[in-house]
Amino acid sequence: MDLIFWTVGSFVYAAAVTMFISRNEISPGGITGIATVLGRLTSIPSGILLFLFNIPILILGLIKFGGVFIIKTAVASSILSLALTITDITLPSFAVDKILAAVFGGVLMGTGISLIMLRGATTGGIDIIAKLINRKFRHLTFGRLILFMDAVVIAITAIVYRNIESALYSVVAMYGTSYIMDMILYGGDKGKLIYIVTNYAEEICSDINSVLKRGVTILTAKGGYTGNERALLLCTLRRHEVSALYAIINKYDKKAFIVVGDAGEIIGEGFKELK
After folding, report:
1. How far apart are CA 75 and CA 116, in angstroms?
2. How confident is the model over 30-51, as a mean pLDDT?
3. SS3 for 193?
4. Taking the mean position of all CA atoms in its chain, how far away is CA 60?
């Protein structure tokens, strides 16, 4: 099953790069971005360049981290290199409107990477480099390191292609990639985290239980200014259930104080099981 996911994900990602990204001088970021740029300059297949670039990185990662993760990543990145080589030969490339190329390319790349990550691997490259740097410089977060290195790759792309628009479209593509990855990897578990300060806690809680079929936690809150104690309700809902909650609150307490935040992932009864 791992190999099926890695293979399908690699070919989806490679198809995006071949058909939409590389032909329209857009960078996919990371080591793949460097490989596609050099491939355009040297006529060497980008898949072969990607494989060669990943070898020393994977060896270094295996020495520093070891474990199944690096081995899985090595296999997945090798499949991706092969997929890029095959799609470069077999698939057409489309010179379309660059914003369309960036959007569709970003969506397909995000889908491909997500399929690979769902089975416990990555495409290698800057992910491993970022982990190595983060071990030495703890104050630099993993996300910021990835963002910085992708920005460098995009800047190199703009210089090589001599077109500042390439960098801007690359940012659009990378945003599309990250958005789709969030949707696939976490989308089914997203929701809203809601705090309600009210004098009608029992009534609102009862309706949330019976109408929305959701659980509620009742806490005791003390006002920092007034010193008065009131009930604080805490609950998590799907996005489409929030308007129904507003109707329930409005029914009992029009002066309730409500804070609504995004919950990136919710694990528990009624949402995602803990595995």
Report:
1. 11
2. 82
3. strand
4. 25
Give the whole-angstrom CA distance, residue 52 versus residue 126: 14
Domain that holds residue 247: 190-263
Same domain, yes or no: 201 and 182: no
pLDDT value, residue 142:
59
Q: Give a yes or no: residue 161 inside a domain.
A: yes
Note whether 100 and 7 are within 8 A (CB).
Answer: no
The domain boundary, picked from 165, 187, 209, lies at 187
Q: Could you say which of 146, 164, 187 is where a domain stops?
A: 187
SS3 content of the chain, % helix, strand, coil (to 5): 65, 10, 25
Q: Is the pLDDT of residue 143 over 60?
A: no
Compute the distance between CA of residue 192 and CA of residue 273 in angstroms, rounded to an integer: 17
**Per the structure, how many domains does the chain have?**
2
In a domain, 238, yes or no: yes
Q: In terms of Cα–Cα distance, which of 144, 117, 110, 114 is closest to 130?
A: 144
Nearest to 28 by CA among 13, 38, 41, 39: 13
